Amino acid sequence: MAGLRLDGAGQAKLTTLDDAQVIHQRIHGLVEQYALSVKQNKPGGAYMNNIKRQMPALAGLLKGQFGMIADLVTSTNMQMTRGSSEQIRVRTMREGIASIKAQLEIALTQTIAKHELKDKH
């Protein structure tokens, strides 16, 4: 395999997914920092505020081409901002972030399968 060749729509989707994965990794790091601050009984408000700012950015990026994943991001954001104990909030955030990661990976695989250009040999 000399390299991955995609049609125009596939390239656009792949660019969107790459950007989304970067934002997702940033959010994942913030969630883990928040979880650590909760475990150590330190204030985690700064991490939570940053997560609340990043989640809509991720949803907005995905909305045009991957609406169902964007809805999952929005749903996760809503669930994690509801009033509950800190431990339940951390678990909800981790589960939501893991679910988003799985959906991004599935979308990446499906985009490649659907938009790959085949050689005419």
Characteristics of this structure?
121 residues, mainly alpha, Four Helix Bundle (Hemerythrin (Met), subunit A), 4 helices, elongated
In short:
This protein has one domain (8-113): Four Helix Bundle (Hemerythrin (Met), subunit A) (Up-down Bundle), CATH 1.20.120.
CATH topology: Four Helix Bundle (Hemerythrin (Met), subunit A)
What's the tally of helices? 4
**What count of structural domains?**
1
Number of strands: 0
The sequence of SSEs as H and E is: HHHH
Which residues sit in consecutive blocks of at least 5 with pLDDT less than 50? Answer: none
Instruction: Give the N-terminus to C-terminus distance in angstroms.
Output: 14 Å
The percent range for helix content is: over 70%
Average of pLDDT:
89
CATH architecture: Up-down Bundle
Q: Please report which band the strand proportion falls in: under 5%, 5-15%, 15-25%, 25-35%, 35-45% or over 45%.
A: under 5%
Shape: elongated
